[in-house]
Amino acid sequence: MTMANGRTPKDSLATEKLLRAAETLFAQHGIEKASLRDITALAGVNVASVNYHFGSKDVLVEAVFANLAERVNDARSRALDELCASARERGDVASVEEIVQVFLHPYLAPNEQTHGELLAQFLLLNRMSPSPITTKIMEQHFDPMARKFISALGDALPGTTLKTLYWRYNFMATTVFMSVTDKARDSRVARLSGGIADPANRKELEAELIAYVAAAMRGPAPVAKQRPQRQRQRQRQRQT
């Protein structure tokens, strides 16, 4: 039987197997270290299947990114909606800490941590080497979610301008995915602290990130730099 898109059920099954196998191995070993041979072996298909179904490993990586981004961000958006709805029922708004915790959940929750860390790897890869496809993935699966979080943060911080909220959301996102991918025992923070601060302790990392990001969100707005008094006097003299 051939489906409307010209693919057979067997083709679709092989595609799903490759996506699942690639996601598992990317999460375990990193995107660069997971070989096509290992991916196809885990999927139970031959190596040529990657070229047949995706064309190249790069396209397979992008497909895994899109699949993971859609799943994770749909769940995160629903969690934020539920948080805000619960707060409204109490006649309140969600706190900054609660909003940040929902944002962090896919990266640090024990049952989602592996895939959350993989998503952070994809985000770093997109920052360093964006492609038209990864840019489209960001626009489809990350931008709508980002606007939801910015709106919720605006409710929690009514004195903060929308422009500042956009900046601070971007800083939060960058801080989070840089932090969650630095998990090795020899990471920089572990080395600097002599092991006192250990990013492998995910509960501690989550608590520190929430405190740090919430404090940054509540920080004062930037103040325009004033010119020194003597410079202002010279400016007035030129105007008279």
TrEMBL record:
Residues 220-240 are annotated as: Disordered. Keywords: DNA-binding, Repressor, Transcription, Transcription regulation. This is HTH tetR-type domain-containing protein. Residues 12-72 form the HTH tetR-type domain. Residues 35-54 bind DNA. It holds the Pfam family TetR_C_30. InterPro entries: DNA-bd_HTH_TetR-type_CS, Homeodomain-like_sf, HTH-type_TetR-like_transc_reg, HTH_TetR, PsrA_TetR_C, Tet_transcr_reg_TetR-rel_C_sf. Residues 227-240 have a biased composition (Basic residues). One of its GO terms (molecular function) is DNA-binding transcription factor activity.
